[in-house]
Every structure is written in structure tokens, then in C-alpha cells.
Amino acid sequence: MEIGLSSPILESEFNRAKELKAFDDTKTGVKGLVDTGILKVPKIFIRPLNELGHNSDSNLNHFQIPIIDLHGYADDKHQRQEIVDGILSASQNWGFFQVVNHGVPTSLMEGMTKAVHRFNEQDDLKKELYSRDRARRVRFHSNVDLYISKTANWRDSLIFNMLGPDPLHPQELPIVFRDITIEYTKHVKNLGDILFELLSEGLGLKPDFLKQMKCAEPCNVVCNYYPPCPEPELTFGSPLHTDPVFLTILLQENIAGLQVLHQDSWVDVNPIPGAFVVNIGDLLQIISNDTLKSVKHRVLVNHMTPRVSVACFLTTLYNATNPFGPIKELITKDKHPIYRDVLMKDYSSYYASQGVDGKSALDYFKL
Ligand code: OGA
Ligand code: NI
């Protein structure tokens, strides 16, 4: 069928599809566009006015997301209890916290962000790894939902599907980030195990409960690159969303951009050098029967500096045959299950069908 260009709506849709394809075909992402010296944000990235509201409703509050100091968690019973209480309260009230004294060497964290910068400066390697095929366990692309969402985001992503029952072979990682990625992931996975222990205790469960549930079986590492933007008020690095995983451990560079929705205001997650940002994902909200909260967040871009973040998503296998639902031990006479049991595959396809556009997928799985 020929597209009738006489209709203004069809014409604009046609142009948009053409523009998306042309952008995708460059295989160099948003940074590639910026490198051509553009002074305006291309139309495919411009959000409708009602979705923007960057400055009017943010930064005018005194909130700060909780900071958890993990020092002493392993060998001081009293301190461990304080840490457990702090993590539980942060996860209930904010869904977000930052951790310090977590045991991951600062040099490794710096090495990882440097490697991501280095990668994004190599167009040939970007083109070689550019793919939307999920079967490729090391891939680069811009906008996971490019052809589904209404507006594209100012962000490029390098993705590794790292651990799990069938670990990624080191040879599959390009040499520019091979050693650092393997070392970094090992440490962050270990931190994930510690956090799952503390969260289990906070929920009144045995320390290894969440680990036994295989909450961190695979770990997907997404290295985000947010290039500087000529008109940052017109677009987002990431629009509001929740994470479709159990837990996210995020390393952010010393540049602001991430914001969390708290009591109807956007609160900046101020970077603390050497800290990780941790947030509860949808799956942990489901299995904790709404005790732990998966909270909406977004990323703003800026005029001046590229920003790198490395998100380690702790999740479960896409084709896991065990459904997950509210933990039986947390269900009492007064606390009925809020969600039905769901297979990861069904949850993921529902989340993906919504596009990353800010609606929570959780409601769909409520009883
Ligand atoms: C994400 C995310 C925040 C950031 O990747 O889900 O929220 O600062 N990232 O990059
Ligand atoms: Ni997120």
C-alpha cells in the first residue's frame, strides 16, 4: 500500500518512521548526532510539553535520598541491625538509597566509567556491536524501545548479559572493557548478595531467603551514555519509569541528572563520589507484597557534559519456569496477597508492550 502523503497525519508518521530508521542506521547513537555539531534537538527526541516540566517542580525541596553506611554489617550485630532497619525504611519510604563503605574499590568504579567513555568514543566498535537482537549478549544501541515509544531518549546504551547459569565467556567482551567489566561485575554481584541478605532480614526472613529465590540469577549490566544536549529542556535521558527487575545497583558519575519521585516532587539523587545508588525494582515490590517500593525515576540531560552511568540489574531468567508472587511467609490473616503469581516471561512482555513511558506495570498483576 502506498502511503498517501496528502494526509498531514500520515505524512508526519511517515517522516518520523523514516527519521527513526535513518537514526538507527547510523549505528553511532545520539553521540553520533551530537558529533555532527547539531545545534537543535531533532524532532524524534522532542517530548510533548505536558510531559516535560523539568524545572518547575524539581529541586525546590529539602529532600535527600537516604544514605546507608555498610561499615560493620558483617561483624557487629548491633550495627548490622541498624543497617537492616535503615535499608528497610529507605526501601519502604523511598524505594531508593545510596550505599557507602560497600567494599567495592573506588579504582574499579572509576575504571568502569572510564571504560564506558572510551567505548563511546570509538565509532567503529559501536557500529560493530550495534544490535537490537537480545540473543547477542554484548550489544550496543540507542533507545531499546526506539520503534515502540512515542519519543526517543537522549541516551545510548552498551549492554552485557553477564552472569547466570550460562556465564558470558570473557572472549565475548571487546578488549577495551574486558578485564574491568569482569572484575567490576564480580564485585557488584557480591554487593547484591549482601543487600539481598540485609533485605531478607529486614522483611523478617532468613538471611539467605531472597538469594535462594534466585533474585540475582542473571545480572544485566547496562552502561548508559548521555551525551551533552543542545536543548536539554526539550527531552529526557530517560523518562519516568520503574525498573522491571528485583534490584538495581547503579554507579553514576559525579554529574547530576537522576531524579526520584518522592511525595509528588522530583528529588535530585546528588552524586556522592564512591557511592552506589540502589533501588527496588517491580519484582521485589511484588514478592514483598508491597512492603518494598519500586519508585518512579527519570534522567535529565545537560548542556555541557556527557554523563555515564552503569546499571547492574539483578533479575531472574526470562524463561524461568517458576512463577513469582508474594512470599508466602509474608502473608498473614491481615495481609492478603496483593498480586497473582506471574511468570517472568509474561511480566517482561507486558512491561515491554507498555514502552518505557512511565506507567507502572504492577497494577496489571494485582489480584
Ligand atoms: C535505568 C536508570 C539511571 C541513570 O537505567 O533504569 O534509571 O542515572 N538509570 O542512568
Ligand atoms: Ni531505572
3D structure, described in words:
The protein has helices at residues 8-26, 29-35, 49-52, 77-93, 106-120, 123-129, 178-202, 209-212, 282-287, 344-354, and strands spanning 67-69, 96-100, 138-142, 156-161, 219-226, 238-241, 247-252, 258-262, 265-268, 276-280, 297-299, 307-314. The strands form two sheets. An eight-stranded mixed beta sheet has the order 1-2-10-7-12-5-4-3. The longest helix is centred in the middle third of the chain and has 25 residues, at 178-202. It is globular and about 60 Å long. It has one domain: B-lactam Antibiotic, Isopenicillin N Synthase, Chain (Jelly Rolls), CATH 2.60.120. With 367 residues, it is α+β, with helices and mostly antiparallel strands. The model is unreliable at 1-5 (pLDDT under 50). 38% of the residues are buried. Helix 5 (106-120) crosses helix 7. It binds N-oxalylglycine and nickel (II) ion (NI). N-oxalylglycine (OGA) binds next to strand 5, strand 7, strand 11 and strand 12. Residues 215-316 form the Fe2OG dioxygenase domain.
Keywords:
binds nickel (II) ion; binds N-oxalylglycine; Jelly Rolls; disordered N terminus; alpha+beta; globular; eight-stranded mixed β-sheet
